[in-house]
Design a protein that fits this description.
Elements: H1 10-22, H2 34-42, E1 44-50, E2 64-67, H3 70-81, E3 85-90, E4 98-103, E5 106-109, H4 115-133, E6 134-144, H5 149-159, E7 164-172, E8 189-196, E9 202-203, E10 220-223, E11 241-242, E12 249-250, H6 261-269, E13 273-274, E14 284-288, E15 296-297, E16 302-303, H7 308-317, H8 330-338, E17 346-349, H9 356-368, E18 373-378, H10 391-403, E19 408-416, H11 420-423, H12 426-437, E20 451-456, E21 459-464, H13 469-479, E22 484-489, H14 492-499, E23 504-508, H15 511-519
Parallel strand pairs: 2-18, 2-19, 3-6, 3-17, 7-16, 17-18, 21-22, 22-23
Antiparallel strand pairs: 1-19, 4-5, 6-8, 7-8, 9-15, 10-14, 11-12, 13-14, 20-21
Helix pairs in contact: 3-4, 3-15, 4-5, 8-9, 9-10
Length: about 525
């Protein structure tokens, strides 16, 4: 058996040892190869090909569906969307041992001694890039089961250091218990780990507030004033309460009051204490709606959303029954995305599967007339036994179309970095430039001397694949109308010499894209 280290140079081996010595030994540790990781990130460039025949709707397209390895797609999106994604939701392989994920072109099963390490490395590579895509106030949700919940929690704390762990949400997945589990326990729930800045919370039910006594301070509701501590722990909260107007005495509750005597007297003076008709009752507090710091309360960590079976019903409704195993119900993702996104934000799902996230985004937009956009990444899931299998094309795309969504269908392609100057195509360049500068994309127009898009008021993005006198004259006319421009070309120095106008920025192609693509790998 060949030694796996034989392929490395002396310099690479020294680097590998130094990297291992540098790492702490406490916490999450798994078998990983830093050099293999480095090569996977830097080995080639990724381009996207627009597939008109598989796209849905008309240009300009706002939503994207990317077919391909999500590691490749994420590397590409870091070039185009770094810092732009408000919400990421993913439902990755749970690593159950039932060949639910592929690592280095092979399924991992439960007999693999490095099963957990391979899963962690697989997730680490993707989450590491995903963090770069989030906005400053962005949030990521990750669904997971029992097999890797603890490992994933530690991994996310490592990758998303600096962000808050907002919480671990529990979702009940089914109603009836499983009698087949050999442990005797029925696992009827899954988890959703959440990291980011904060959630919106749940709206306060203002219908619970009213003003039956015409209080000038406005609508109110009655609130409990009893405490939570025994007398030996909080003696200052244990006392009898007297209604001075009637002389009635109300005995101290078993765990005291919520307020000390001085504060309680202030509330009584302000006529905020509601006295019951008899001394067997318990005085309560008037809580005014206008005093609430927010019109929202905390989002419960117990998710009250549809069960797994609902996901299958939703696929059946669009004639895709049994095309995907255990699809998530859109109500789950809609509830989570709704906690983060404003009406014009971007949602990313790079384990898109059957396309449930797209339906959730479309449903949210339908409710509030929002313009949220989605970017979905789905693989074909083809294997040696099923070489023609294509989940992205045959399930995800069809579901979005039948749900009423539109999207540009894009296919990821690797280009060896040493061949990019000869292999990258003009349409691939223009697609990348549009995604960097704009919210929409349109197909490359082969008959035009140059491609142009207005990305802001009086600002143009121009791609000039070939310099001709006619093209230069047309560009001058556009810019003479008082517009600023950034022009991408294969001959930026010569172009600058020919145009030489103020208000124009010149960028080299493909070097601009290569530099931007590699920037994240050098962090």
């Amino acid at each position: 058996m060949a030694d796996k280290y034989e392929k490395y140079s002396k310099e690479e081996l020294v680097r590998l040892l130094r990297e291992r010595d540098r790492k702490p030994r406490f916490g999450l540790v798994w078998e990983r190869d830093e050099i293999d990781h480095d090569k996977s990130v830097n080995g080639d460039f990724v381009a996207l090909d627009f597939q008109k025949e598989l796209s849905c709707g008309d240009a300009p397209y706002r939503n994207l569906l990317i077919e391909g390895d999500n590691f490749d797609a994420l590397r590409y999106l870091r070039m185009t969307h770094a810092g732009k994604i408000k919400c990421i939701y993913i439902d990755p392989p749970y690593n159950t041992g039932n060949k639910d994920f592929i690592y280095n072109d092979r399924f991992v099963d439960k007999d693999d001694l490095y099963r957990h390490s391979k899963w962690l490395e697989y997730m680490y590579r993707r989450l590491e890039i995903a963090r770069d895509l989030l906005t400053e106030d962005g949030v990521i949700f990750v669904s997971i089961g029992e097999d890797e919940i603890h490992e994933l929690g530690l991994l996310m704390e490592h990758v998303f250091a600096g962000l808050q762990k907002i919480g671990t949400f529990v979702w009940r997945t089914r109603q009836s218990a499983d009698s087949r589990n050999q442990t005797g326990a029925s696992i009827d729930h899954e988890y959703v780990l959440c990291f980011g800045q904060r959630l919106k919370g749940t709206p306060i039910d203002e219908d619970k507030f009213s003003n039956p006594d015409s209080d000038p301070r406005g609508a109110w509701r009655s609130a409990d004033m009893t405490g939570l501590a025994t007398k030996d722990k909080r003696p200052n909260l244990h006392y009898d309460l007297k209604n001075e107007e009637t002389g009635e005495i109300y005995l101290c509750p078993p765990k005291g009051w919520r307020y000390e005597p001085k504060t309680m007297q202030k509330l009584i003076k302000e006529k905020r204490v509601l006295w019951p008709a008899n001394t067997d009752g318990r005085p309560r507090l008037k809580k005014f709606l206008k005093e609430l710091k927010s019109n929202r309360k905390g989002f419960s960590s117990i998710l009250d959303v549809p069960l797994t079976a609902e996901g299958g019903k939703e696929l059946a409704e669009v004639d895709l029954r049994n095309q995907f195993s255990f699809p998530k119900p859109s109500g789950l993702i809609k509830e989570l995305v709704g906690q983060v996104c404003e009406p014009n934000d971007i949602v990313l799902d790079f384990f898109a599967g059957s396309g449930t996230t797209a339906k959730a985004v479309l449903d949210l937009n339908g409710e509030d007339e929002g313009t949220r956009r989605f970017i979905l990444v789905s693989s074909t899931e083809a294997t040696g036994e099923e070489p023609d299998k294509n989940i992205c094309r045959d399930v995800c795309a069809k579901r979005i179309e039948r749900t009423g969504g539109d999207f540009a269908y894009l296919r990821a392609r690797r280009i060896p970095i040493e061949t990019i100057f000869t292999k990258i195509q003009h349409d691939q360049v223009w697609l990348a430039l549009q995604l960097i500068h704009s919210d929409t994309i349109s197909p490359y127009q082969k008959g035009d001397a140059f491609q142009v898009q207005e990305v802001e008021k009086d600002k143009l993005v121009i791609y000039l694949p070939k310099m001709t006198d006619a093209a230069l004259n047309d560009i001058k006319k556009k810019i003479n109308k008082g517009k600023e421009a950034v022009i991408y070309s294969w001959q930026p120095a010569l172009l600058k010499e020919r145009l030489g106008k103020s208000g124009i920025t010149y960028e080299p192609i493909p070097q601009f894209l290569v530099d931007r693509f590699g920037a994240g790998a050098k962090k």
